[in-house]
Amino acid sequence: MADASSDPAEPEEGTVESAVRRVEPDESEELSTEELRRRVEDEYDFEDFTPADMKRMSPEEWEAVFDPDTWITGPELLDRVEADTKRRVLDRDVFARVERMANPDRVVAYSDEGYAVVYEDGSIEGEGTVLRDLKPSVALCSMDSYEAPDLPDEDLLPRPMEVPQGSGEFGNLMIQLVAGALFLSGAVLGGAALFTADLGVIAGTAGILFLVAGGVLFFTVANARLSDRFRAEEYRNRLRAVGMEDDELPEWLPESARETPGLDRGAAADAPDGENRD
């Protein structure tokens, strides 16, 4: 997910930058700030502003409609980011483990495809899909007009062995019953074709069609169950990769994404996967 508060080009992974930093206006832009503001207000629904809308906005549009002097920072920003990210995990919009860490106070989210660390001043570092997913959330949560959700109380991710083998078993059972009925009907019609001279061809043809339809439905159920099994195992592997089985952090996470006693902001920014923000 792209960040509308940064340059159009995707930043290099592993850098530290502010998700709510100011962007200098383009001197060559044709529209005035007031004209651009009116256009943006007509195009976007700010009563229901989402990360998807944030992705569509350009830096100039962002600067035209949002006042940087009203941006929320500090512990309140981290509270909002933590609640918003956890809600997105519960809604299956983001896959990540989300933790609040101290020294310095920060929100850490990580998965098997990257990580992100959010600090009190709105700066964010990381890499991969988690970084791209969290940038719009940080920008939204820094806006006073954005209503962050309440912090969820339930577990965000299940243990690997708690993942069901598949879903929709009731639907599969219904399809199997229909397939069985078609098979039985096909067998009856096929048998009738052997003993009925007048309707033998018609009954035989109908019986074959019923048998084929039943076979297709049985194949569909078998394929769906196999796909469910593969998806469940893939999800279990992703959960294991983020330590949901043994509660161990992934080895590749930098120090800034770990609960390290005495770690200060300078040390976090000097970690191998990040560099200080200008």
TrEMBL record:
Residue intervals of the DUF7319 domain: 57-256
Chain residue ranges for the region called Disordered: 1-44, 249-278
Regions that span the bilayer: 173-195, 201-222
A Pfam family annotated for this UniProt entry: DUF7319
Keyword Transmembrane carried by entry: yes
Superkingdom of origin: Archaea
UniProtKB keywords: Membrane, Transmembrane, Transmembrane helix
InterPro entries: DUF7319 (IPR055743)
UniProt protein name: DUF7319 domain-containing protein
